[in-house]
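During the no-cost extension, the postdoctoral fellow (Dr. R.K.) reprocessed legacy sequence entries with the updated structure-token encoder. One reprocessed record is reproduced below for audit purposes.
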Amino acid sequence: MLSAEPQWVALYTNPRMEKKAEKNLAEEGYEVYLPIRRELHAWSDRKKWVDTPLIKSYIFSKITDRQVSLVRNVQGVSNIVAFRGRIATIPDAEIQTMKDFIASELDIQVRNTESLKTGTRVRITGGPLEGKVGMLVDDGEDGNFAVEITGISMAMVVYVDSCLMEPVEEESPSKTQRRRKYIIR
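Re-encoded structure tokens follow.
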């Protein structure tokens, strides 16, 4: 639960409304932080540096317990992030660390590793095994995940950093595949 002293909270925004929500909160007098990174976007006719939110659909604001309902009503804000019914607060030091990372201009990648659980089908997105699909067999705590890649009647387990994989959506069978399933020959 929040206290009478302002505390940092994560706010979930409407899709692609992070900058608008930040502006609206600042105009209402709230202390707000939107981590931004510069990315080079390339189109067929030009390249341009674009400021994009580091964490899509999230911004951070320092609020008190009395401001909870007011913040939820700010245009662009969808909700306040909570776990088990309690608003999640973020220590000042973690916000400062995020600011320091952004200021360092390092190439920062943000991934949701909650979706990387044992049994998840994953695609390796970098390194010599890029593009390979396998089954996550160990969701290691040290950041290295064991992925089983099957083929040629054998399984190979490799250790891959979590930033080099993504969950694979289960593909629904196409209409022709579904039809073939019921054809009797």
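The chain has a mean pLDDT of 77. The longest strand covers residues 144-151. The remaining legacy entries will be reprocessed before the final report is submitted.
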